[in-house]
Amino acid sequence: MIYGIGTDICDVRRIRASLERHGERFAARVLAEGEYRTWQQRSARWPERGVRFLATRFSAKEAFSKAIGLGMRMPMTWRHCEVVNLPSGKPGVRLHGELQRWCEARGLQIHLSVTDESDYAASFCVVETMHQNGSSCLSPLVE
Description:
With 143 residues, the chain is an alpha+beta fold. Helix content is 43%, strand content 27%. A hairpin with a 5-residue loop joins β2 and β3 (91-95).
């Protein structure tokens, strides 16, 4: 059963401007540890790729926060929501801390799609509740 749906579009130019204004502190505020390491690697090789990576993560977290109905208030935090790639390449969400416990208590599963073009990153998130038997009709949360 669908718990919530969220979508977000992010202007990559705004993310670039925030990075220019605040430097790595901006990325460190938005990205979980694993995302931050990936961002540093991509930025070192090709700075524009790092900006786009950060924009897609920003957009995905916004879409997720809307789908769960919390916005950016506890237990939802930027760093407790980590966007990862499953072995298939499909994007997924790994939760941490209180946000993970909050979602587990509600039996939530997360499905995410992200995309980007030169000036925009967009995300779509569907959050569902698990069936009575503990199974889901879609893919499970990332462990």
